[in-house]
């Protein structure tokens, strides 16, 4: 019986964290971009 650690659980966790963080940043940037566009449009209408 081997008592070596299986690295795949860490690899999968790292990919899950990386993909989740990337998707979170994309969502955050889209929301920020939409807010900035609304402020720009409001400033142009004045």
Offer a few descriptive terms.
0% strand; 46 residues; 83% helix; rod-shaped; mainly alpha
- Per DSSP E runs of 2 or more residues, the count of β-strands stands at 0
Main beta sheet: strand number and arrangement?
none
List the uncertain runs: none
Radius of gyration: 21 Å
Strand content: under 5%
Q: How would you describe the oligomerization state of the chains in this entry?
A: single chain
Secondary structural class: mainly alpha
Distance between the termini: 75 Å
- The DSSP helix count reads 1
Instruction: Assign a percent range to the helix content.
Output: over 70%
- What's the average pLDDT? 94
> H/E order of the elements?
H
Characterization of this structure:
The chain is mainly α. It starts with 7 loop residues before the first helix and ends with a helix. It has one helix spanning 8-45. The longest helix is centred in the middle third of the chain and has 38 residues, at 8-45. The chain is rod-shaped and about 75 Å long.
